[in-house]
Amino acid sequence: GEPLMGPAGQRFNRQLERAGLLRDAVWLDNRVHCRPPNNEVRKFPDALSKCADLWLFPALFRELDNLQVVVTLGAVAGSLWFGKQSVEEQAISSRAVLVGAQHFKDGAIPKRWLLAPLYIVGAYHPSYPFYKGGDWNCIDDSIVASMLRAKELSK
Questions:
Q1: CA nearest neighbour of 80 among 103, 47, 54, 58
Q2: pLDDT per residue over 107-143, tens digit each?
Q3: Rounded distance between C-alpha atoms, residue 106 and residue 101, angstroms
Q4: Of 6, 23, 46, 155, whose Cβ has the fewest other Cβ atoms within 10 Å?
Q5: What angle do helix axes 136-153 and 7-18 make, rounded to 10 degrees?
Q6: Closest-CA residue to 139 (of 18, 40, 54, 25)
Q7: First-to-last CA distance in the chain?
């Protein structure tokens, strides 16, 4: 099914509105198309890197010709780009990384991203407060800040 359709999706829609974005203008997908046994992503970290090679990178190249910025929602989505940093570390100050050779197995960054750089911005997942608790307003504000940072980088 489509990502973020439940209560977290409703929060995400409000966060997008606050950032001046329409849901139809963003590409949403699930980072993990290659599910490990019992969907235990954290116990099988190789599933994430293998999935990137099998699905994510080809999809990004094929589907998104003008892609400039990716906002990762949550620690699992951000792990490919931010390594073992926690979601809190990924979301601090709407941190952005420039995709480089270190993100690819053979160290060769695709030529397409040498011509038009790709930035990755970390953010909390909209469902974070449902499962982990915390200050809902602070988390919402952090997600909105990440979306605004993405808008800024895409100009």
A1: 103
A2: 555 555 555 677 888 888 898 888 888 788 888 999 9
A3: 8
A4: 155
A5: 50
A6: 18
A7: 31
Tokens, residue 73: 């929602």
Of the candidates 106, 81, 90, the residue with the CA atom closest to the CA atom of residue 149: 90
Closest CA to 48 of 29, 63, 35: 35
| CB of 149 closer than 8 Å to CB of 72 | no
Phi–psi pair at 96, nearest 5 degrees: -125, 140
Tell me the CA distances in angstroms from 100 to 79, 95, 133, one per residue in order.
Answer: 15, 16, 34
Upper half-sphere CA count for residue 121 (Cβ side, 13 Å): 20
Residues in the chain, overall count:
155
User: Can you say whether residue 104 is alpha, beta or left, with left for phi > 0 and alpha for psi between -120 and 50 degrees?
Assistant: beta
- Mean pLDDT of the region 55-72: 74
pTM of the predicted structure, to 2 decimals: 0.77
* Beta carbons of 144 and 18 less than 8 angstroms apart: yes
Burial of 68 (0-12, 13-18, 19+ CB in 10 A): middle
